[in-house]
Amino acid sequence: MRIAVVQLAADIDAARNRELIASALAGIEPGSTDLVVLPEAVMHDFGSADHDLAAVAESLDGPFVSSLTEHAARLDTTIVAGMFERTDGLPYNTLVVVGPDGLRSTYRKIHLYDSFGYRESDRLRAGAIEPVAIDIAGTRVGLMTCYDLRFPELARALMDTDPVPDVLVVPAAWVAGERKVDHWRTLLAARALENTVYVVAAAQGGDRYTGHSLVVDPWGSIVDEVRGTDTAVIRADLEPRVVARSREVNPSLANRRMRST
Question: Where is the CN hydrolase domain (predicted)?
Answer without folding.
Answer: 1-240
